[in-house]
Amino acid sequence: MAVLILCALAISPRWAFGASTRPAQGAAQEVAAYPSRPIRFIIPAPPGGTTGILGRLVGQRLTDVLNQPVVVDHRGGAGGVVAAEITAKAAPDGYTLLVAYHSHTTNATLNPKVPYRPVDDYRPITQATRAGLVLVVNLQMPVKTVQELIAYGKANPGKLNFSSAGNGSGGHMAGELLKQMTGIQAQHVPYKGTGPSLIDVAGGQIEMSFAGMVPVQPLIRSGRVRALAVTTTERIPSIPDLPTVAESGVPGFEVVGWYGFLAPAGVPQPIVAKLHAEIVKILRDPELTKRLTNDGAEVVASTPDEFEKFLRADVVKWAKVVKASGARLD
């Protein structure tokens, strides 16, 4: 059998070479022509949240640069697990990207059975931004400072609820960290996105929430919620009068949310490189940078390798908080 195979190869070298290179040539041509059809941004939350806003800002500009539509597809649910699974299982061709945020690295600890690995099942493209959260309360709450909130929580055990964009979100982790560091009791109420969460805070159904700057600022400015503090270690330039949680009596408190772009594992390196170059260029555009900074965000625009290292470290960082809180993702 071995002799027959060798003879066949000897007789038809061109045929054999052509058969082995045709798929490779096709793949190379597809990469060179990328993108040749619309790209889909998967958003792990309903409309109205920071991920959706960022996805649209970048997507609109990427459409102009690549001459192909970028479609924003909201897939909220299960704290981001639905969107993450869709992306992980998508074809690795660069036409499906996840606009990920901080819950992506906490979900695996909240539920070890999530159907994907938060780092290894993706090709990191870039960490787009990092941003603090704002602690807000409804107007019926008799508190105007973090210390008054802590005192209220201790004096009224079981009466304090805090909402978030979902299990594992930055708002969820910030609330759990505040509980651990102050000893107050507060029940977490997860929503399917920041928008619905803030609606119920403004409506008085929920006492407090940690929310992203972009979606919460209109409610603060219109007087529909009361802002108490920010979760960064330093005050945010766009709202300098608002103190940090740390300086308000909880030293060492810090929660910084992140947002970034991930592709499915297996996407060819040239496509990753092209997406990275164009998205980073968009993020560093002075007009967009100014808008993001005014919204309390800091542009990161990291390399794929830097983003991967960050993701691995973030998984480890929040695992301790998740385990101590006893929180789980159902």
Question: How would you describe the overall organization of this protein?
Answer:
With 330 residues, this protein is an alpha/beta fold. The protein has two domains: 163 residues, 3-Layer(aba) Sandwich (D-Maltodextrin-Binding Protein, domain 2); 112 residues, Periplasmic binding protein-like II (D-Maltodextrin-Binding Protein, domain 2, 3-Layer(aba) Sandwich), CATH 3.40.190. Helices cover 46% and strands 19% of the residues. It contains twelve helices and ten strands. Strands 1, 2, 3, 4, 5, 6, 7, 8, 9 and 10 form a ten-stranded mixed beta sheet that branches. α3 crosses α10, α5 crosses α12 and α7 packs across α12. The longest helix is centred in the last third of the chain and has 22 residues. The chain is globular, with a radius of gyration of 23 Å. The N terminus is likely disordered.
Question: What is the CATH domain class of the largest domain?
Answer: Alpha Beta
For the biggest sheet, the summary is:
10 strands, mixed
Query: How many E strands?
Result: 10
**Order of SSEs:** HHEHEHEHEHEHEHEHEEHHEH
Please tell me the CATH architecture of the largest domain by its name: 3-Layer(aba) Sandwich
The secondary-structure class comes to alpha/beta
Please, how many helices? 12
* CATH domain fold name of the largest domain: D-Maltodextrin-Binding Protein, domain 2
Total domain modules: 2
The helicity comes to 40-55%
Q: What's the overall geometry?
A: globular
pLDDT averaged residue by residue? 88
pLDDT under 50 segments (min length 5)? 1-17
